[in-house]
Design brief:
Length: 514
């Protein structure tokens, strides 16, 4: 794996040496890629096999090892723990629902079930903070809340409309607060901010440090992580008898093993050997399309990020942002940002949204056009940072289900389970999903195992080229809607209204929840 890729790029009126890819700034800020763990040494019989070493897989293994210390749990990771979105994201630990309330409300729990899921997500932000403290995970966790700013009248109208919906749903000021223009700018001085929505239940983290910390914490609980071990296939055991009768730790069918009795188990196949287990859990989110049988389950949506060099004290005095709120705007193709612990601005957005055939990036390298577009957003929102160079750019994939609703699923009979599809809100959601998957595998009935995303099914994505054409058309439409709304295309009220209408059409076509 190459360790360094440098590109010379023009940034405003300066030329800077920018790093591109290398998985993410977050990993490079920790000193580069982590020391590699061994690959799978050969075929194994274990109790639980987790495929994918991101937040979902690592949290699942961590909590399951806490619940059932007697189980032998292995994690098989294609690259290294935290290589995927978990080591590349914007570091928003947000309680945002990964999906549509209306769609989740169709589950048995109805609207109350959705409220329970949202309340569990809010509690998850604190749970992650608790584990970080308990396990000495130093990941710059700050619970500063989430601030969404409106920078055009259309965005402000959308924000107010959204807030009215939240109030109807029962969310009070303790969950979402409207902020006036001055109140918004007092928190973060975003140029052109007209108002904001503040949600206290959100935290900021250094994503790779969190991923590395969970991996180590899971290992302390006895979980074995094998890296550079791509799984080529997950399937139910054809024998129907399970791997070894009682399982390697002797706990299989005794009632204390995964899912109690009756699971015939499954197998994860790799080039190093096969791992037979009572439970095999697919935790591969944006990479799921690489596995046979799941090629159209989750669309690998690209998200791209840039991070600046550290801002000077004068720039920070101008911008404020002392609460370290996670920050976004209300554009259709929205941006998300954080103030990093080392005094930089990390900002992300959609860029090129999707690669044909569900392909994924190479080590997070992103294209110059996207870097320039994100740089322009940064300079527009933060003029005080306009002369600060971009230090690093990268991208990654997150998993989007066809109905934009995440799932946590476990089939006791086959022993196969999966979780993901958090549509860009996976940092907190993966913790909740991991705890839920752990309960399901352990056969624990808990308040988590009845949440409406448990067992949720989404239909498959369309085959190519419809999939590529659909996603690209949608984001072209969103970008045009944003341009019309901001007036860059020569705004007149009619054009602004056209932009708003286009945005709504986009939401209707895509099914993106609001
Ligand atoms: C740039 C970016 C910014 C984001 N920002 C935010 C944010 O600020 N807040 C938020 O809530 N969410 C954000 N997200 C989404 C969030 O990061 C993800 O939803 C979350 O990290 C998913 O975790 P995961 O463990 O399910 O998947 P991943 O972290 O992607 O982990 C999957 C792992 O599986 C491994 N794998 C894949 N295939 C195989 C295989 N066949 N065999 C073995 N291993 C395999 C991969 O190498 C990878 O390590 C962002 C995502 C991206 C890409």
């Amino acid at each position: 794996m190459p360790t360094r890729t440098c590109l010379v790029v023009a940034l405003s009126d300066s030329v800077a040496l920018m790093r591109n890819g290398e998985v993410s700034y977050w990993w490079q800020a920790l000193g580069g890629f982590p020391p590699r763990r061994p690959s799978l040494p050969g075929s194994l019989d274990v109790d639980v096999c987790v495929v994918g070493g991101g937040y979902t897989g690592l949290w699942t293994a961590y909590y399951l090892a806490g619940l059932r210390p007697e189980l032998r749990i292995v994690v098989l990771e294609a690259a290294f723990a935290g290589y995927g979105a978990s080591g590349r994201n914007g570091g928003w630990v947000t309680a945002e629902l990964p999906g549509s309330r209306a769609r989740y409300a169709r589950a048995a729990g109805g609207a109350d079930g959705v409220r329970a899921l949202e309340s569990a997500l809010r509690a998850t932000v604190a749970e992650i903070g608790r584990v970080c403290a308990a396990e000495s995970i130093d990941c710059d966790f700050v619970k500063g809340g989430r601030l969404s700013v409106a920078t055009t009248p259309s965005q402000l109208a959308r924000l107010r409309e959204g807030l009215a919906g939240l109030r109807e749903w029962g969310d009070g000021d303790d969950v979402y607060q409207f902020l006036s223009r001055d109140e918004t700018r007092e928190r973060v001085n975003v140029a052109g901010a007209l108002g904001g929505l503040y949600a206290p239940a959100s935290a900021r983290v250094q994503p790779a440090a969190l991923a590395a910390g969970i991996a180590t914490a899971a290992e302390r609980r006895g979980v074995e992580i094998f890296e550079a071990t791509p799984v080529s296939l997950i399937e139910a055991n054809s024998s129907g008898t399970g791997p070894s009768g009682t399982g390697p730790s002797g706990t299989g069918p005794s009632g204390t093993g995964p899912s109690g009795t009756g699971a015939s188990g499954a197998v994860a196949r790799t080039g190093f050997g096969d791992v037979h287990a009572r439970a095999v859990l697919r935790c591969t989110e944006g990479y799921t399309a690489g596995l046979p049988g799941a090629r159209r389950a989750l669309l690998p949506m690209n998200s791209h990020m840039v991070v600046t060099e550290p801002l000077d004290a004068a720039a920070w005095r101008e911008i404020g942002w002392e609460g370290c709120e996670t920050l976004s705007d209300e554009a259709h193709a929205y941006m998300y940002a954080q103030r990093t612990a080392d005094g930089r601005i990390a900002l992300g957005g959609r860029g090129d949204p999707y690669r044909f055939g569900s392909a994924t990036d190479h080590l997070g390298q992103t294209d110059p056009g996207t870097v320039a577009a994100l740089g322009a957003v940064l300079r527009r929102l933060f003029p005080a940072a306009a002369d600060t160079s971009i230090a690093h750019a990268w991208c990654g994939v997150l998993g989007v289900p066809r109905d934009w609703c995440a799932t946590v699923t476990y089939h006791q009979a086959s022993g196969i389970g999966w979780a993901g599809g958090y549509t860009g809100h996976g940092v907190a959601a993966a913790n909740l999903a991991g705890r839920t998957l752990a309960d399901l595998v352990a056969g624990e009935k808990s308040e988590l195992t009845t949440l409406p995303w448990v067992g949720h099914r989404s239909r498959s994505w369309e085959p190519e080229p419809a999939r590529w054409a659909g996603v690209h058309s949608l984001y072209a439409l969103y970008r045009l809607a944003d341009r019309l709304e901001t007036g860059e295309a020569g705004a007149r009220p009619a054009r602004v209204r056209a932009g708003e209408a286009l945005g709504r059409v986009g939401d209707l076509i895509s099914g993106i929840p609001h």
